[in-house]
Write a structure and sequence with these properties.
Layout: H1 6-60, H2 65-70, E1 74-75, E2 83-84, H3 87-118, H4 121-133, H5 139-157, H6 167-190, H7 194-202, H8 207-218, H9 220-235, H10 239-244, H11 262-273, H12 279-308
Antiparallel strand pairs: 1-2
Helix pairs in contact: 1-12, 3-6, 3-9, 4-6, 5-6, 6-9, 7-8, 9-12, 11-12
């Protein structure tokens, strides 16, 4: 067997050195690139928050912050007698949220239990992608679905139900967040070690008892976090409540009445109903800041629950 010539050896050494040099350049460049991208996202977040803060401060120089949080009427377009009581918008938001949670939590949790504990691998591979398709449907399609399909069906059951109401968008928003709750809960339940299931079955527990008394408590942190994140998604929903909920801000907890949520009001004003620099214009930032605080609180709560009840296996 012929040995490689000194020329070939030198070429191989040069090639290895060039490859090593290129690898080192990439290794040094990638962290810098990732840092720049992360820093841009942080700057964007800071810019959004600062914009909300400054514009909200401008609004509160014109409207009393006490009236904003204590008045029960929201009539920003009444010149000379405007009323900015955010409670009317908060009640509409909470009403839709409660209805959505009532719809989404049982369906989402039941779907997660089935996929994690009862479905075969083949069934899971078929059903889970189909379920997650719901998450890819544009919310404006959900809005028209609520307005033109769900509301007429509800009107047959509740004859006095108006075209715009809180019940229809609440149900549809609940359907929309089912994939989020089901997917995150199923991931949390699937992470529970099989040894815990096998131990419970060996002690004589049924499949249902294993699911509800062993797997569910063990995955409770992930499940509750999925609920909280789903609620945050509901609070920030825009198009469904704008199209099907109406534009009647009122302090009510009757799901058959027309309501207006915080996001729906922002859409209404942003579509050109108020001129730049007016009090009504600045009110969208005050409402947006309130919405931001709600969403931030829900996400912080999800993080706390996830850490507080996390199981170590």
């Amino acid at each position: 067997m012929a040995l490689p010539s000194s020329y070939n050896v030198r070429e191989l050494i040069k090639e290895k050195k060039s490859k090593k040099s290129a690898t080192q350049i990439v290794e040094k460049a990638v962290p810098s690139l990732l840092f720049v991208l992360a820093f841009i996202s942080i700057l964007t977040t800071i810019g959004i928050v600062l914009t909300l803060i400054f514009e909200t401060i401008t609004f509160f120089t014109r409207v009393s912050i006490l009236d904003f949080f204590t008045q029960k009427e929201w009539y920003p377009f009444f010149e000379g007698n405007a009323s900015y009581g955010i409670m009317a918008l908060i009640s509409g938001t909470l009403l839709v949220t409660v209805i959505a949670v009532i719809v989404a939590v049982p369906i989402g949790l039941a779907s997660a239990i089935f996929l994690s504990e009862y479905a075969s691998d083949r069934t899971r591979r078929i059903i889970k992608p189909i379920l997650e398709v719901l998450a890819g449907i544009p919310t404006i399609v959900y809005g028209f679905f609520a307005l033109t399909f769900v509301t007429p069906i509800l009107q047959k059951i509740i004859p006095d139900l108006g075209i715009f109401n809180a019940l229809s968008p609440g149900i549809v928003v609940g359907i929309m967040i089912v994939p989020m709750i089901a997917s995150l809960s199923e991931d949390a339940m699937s992470s529970v070690p099989s040894s815990m299931r096998q131990g419970a079955l060996a002690l004589g527990a049924t499949k249902l008892e294993v699911s509800l008394k062993v797997v569910l408590p063990a995955a409770i942190s992930g499940i509750v976090a999925s609920f909280v994140l789903g609620i945050s998604r509901v609070i920030g929903e825009t198009m469904i409540v704008t199209l099907a909920g109406g534009a009647t801000p009122k302090l009510t907890f009757d799901p058959t009445e027309s309501i207006q949520t915080m996001t729906a009001y922002i859409v209404q004003v942003s579509s050109g109903d108020a001129g730049y620099g007016t009090t009504v214009y600045y009110s969208i930032y005050a409402v947006g800041m309130t919405l931001f605080v709600f969403t931030l609180a829900m996400n912080v709560l999800a993080q706390f629950i996830s850490r507080r009840f996390r199981e170590e296996y």
